[in-house]
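Researcher: Structure prediction, please.
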Amino acid sequence: MDLALLAAISSGAIWGVVPSLYAEASRYGGSVRANFWKSLGAFLFLLPLCYLTGNLVIPPVMGLLFIAANMSLGTGLGDYSFLKAIGLIGPGRATSIGFTYVVWTAFLSSFLLGEPLTPLILLGALLAVSGIWVLSYRGGRWKFYGLLWSIIASLSWTLGPIAAKLALNYVSELTMTLWNSLLTTVLYGSLSIPRYRVKGLKKALLGGLLGVGIALPMYFYALNVVGVTIATLATAIGPPTSQLASHISGDRISARDVLGSLLVALGLVLSVIGRT
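Model: Predicted structure follows.
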């Protein structure tokens, strides 16, 4: 397994765990304030790291425009919509819809960036999304606005990596993540006026440090090396990781959990084989 693919899988695993850290802040303080503290946690971690590694630079204009587009779509509108959906319909249902971006990204990156879309990659994407549905969907009543916010998150996460891939022609992964988190912090900080404090603040800060400060540069690295399609597909490991974390904390493993995890794993394997 090459380093870039490992980085993508690792970022997906982190993203499978951190939604539980955002949930309390989102539920009691709203998506705007939850995103502010999440982004601030990432920025405070990345600022000294970029200074020490020589990545504390001002991007060129085109790079900054693509970073702003990625921020607006991904950690901006996408994450806002996802947190909004979590507050309305819970993390399971929100994830089952939101993570369909894995399939849409494969099509769009092939159309816009010319990345290969082989039958095995397509089959792997469909299997991965099927596994996520099996893992996440728990029935019950769906709220229309929760479903709508989940769809918006999926579409935003589909377009965000395209902008990120273009931005990496101008900046490093760390520089891009730093400016991404800075822009997001400023945006949601402005929208959070006059009340910033929220229940679950420390958890949201930690979630931002892990989910943005650490996981996002790894994802950008993978995206730059193996392409948008494979890097994004590898992040489908997130939902199985989320289920595993819940089992470690005491929840029972069900047949649904095993089947869903196997479908995701098989989808990832087929996609990796299909890229060669």
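Model: The chain has one domain: 3-274.
Researcher: Thanks, that helps.
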